[in-house]
Amino acid sequence: MEFKSREEIIEYQNKKLRCCVDYAAKNSRFFKDTLKKSNLKSDDIKNIEDLQKLPFTTKNDLRDNYPFGLMAVPMEDIVRFHASSGSTGKSTVVYYTKKDLDTWADLMARVLATTGLTKKDSMQIIYNYGFFTGGFGFHYGAERLGVSVIPTGSGNTKKQIEIMRDFGTTSFTSTPSYAILLGETVEEMGIDPKKDLKLRIGVFGGEPWGEGMRHRIEELFNIDAYDNYGLSELCGPGIAVECKEKEGLHVWEDHFIMEVIDPKTGEIVGDGERGELVFTSLWKEAMPIFRYRTRDISRVYEDKCNCGRPFRKIERLHGRSDDMLIIRGVNVFPSQIEEVILKNSVFKGHYAIVVERKGPLDLLTVEIEVTKDLFTGNLKDLIQLKDKVEDDLKNVLLVKANVKLVEEGTIPRSQGKAQRVIDKRNLEE
Questions:
Q1: What is the pLDDT of residues 86-115, one digit of tens each?
Q2: Taking the chain, what is the end-to-end CA distance rounded to the nearest angstrom?
Q3: CA-to-CA distance for 351 and 363, rounded, in angstroms?
Q4: Would you give the DSSP letter of residue 271?
Q5: Within 115-210, where are the H helices?
Q6: Which domains can be identified in the chain, with CATH numbers?
Q7: Are the CB atoms for 332 and 364 separated by under 8 Å?
Q8: What is the pTM of this model?
């Protein structure tokens, strides 16, 4: 459906919302219980504003109803299960009907088309194929668009690069941290991306990443790098993506209602204010979900994009509310640290954040890999570099961080989501 104005989008959302509420009230035991506990009837939810009458749905709700408590169709109508693994507790399971999978494929095709991919392209999918939704989401979206799929899955880094070269791969998708590792391996293998590879587009997600990492990836591969946003609990990848303007991610508002709340109070924040993203799905048959708290921190751009698309954009993720570190009473996001690090060309994007407690004080240490030649040079230069980064971090974070410069290869690499934060305070308690 084509939308000519913001008013048309809202009218469409209200219509779809009423249908979704009516459907869930008849078919979802979880939603029936939610209405009952809230002293609500389905008729009480008539428009977007009425959504606020409903309580939030959280990851704990999914875990408490593991595995089938949010199912709204008979088991025989379920054609796919996926799950999001967590560090603690049970997995959060999501289910799909055939219609759900078709819609998801359409959304992902829209994602890839927005980045400029066409039927003339091929996409190497360097995500795990399993319970994780990333691999399958990109796979079916690429096929729906007519892009040739190269389903390599994750790992086997040198083989991935050989396939890129031999198959003439024009695009790939992975986590941004693994893209950095791939790019560094390209350099080690003596491969020239401009001459030996045909890559032109990369689509990345699965973890917050900043402009510094984008520039690093684009430099390593000679490509345009685009940010994609999604989460398994709602569908997987396919909620939002950057257009060629690269100034925020367009949310597919014909399929999702978006709210931004204060993560502490749960209240809706003002226009343009940063807060936690909350989404309501307008299309899931197997698992309708309302007001899902993502824990992802962002804000909405209300201005119309130069690309002409009618859907609003969100800021690239600022971090997660549950990843936020409180250091001596100050809120610190790993993304803030990353931006400082990647402003300096001698840093290649590998770092670790270590938090410890010494007596009553929290100590923040940032370990950063530097190029090998710096360790064979002047010690004075290393000390000056360390001091400068510490000053830059203090100016941004408003709290002191100790910087430890380490040699290349010291910090463990990841083939999936990078584990940047080591919070030893939890281990010490």
A1: 544 578 999 999 999 999 999 999 999 999
A2: 54
A3: 17
A4: T
A5: 134-145, 157-167, 176-188, 193-196
A6: 1-321 (3.40.50.12780), 325-428 (3.30.300.30)
A7: yes
A8: 0.84
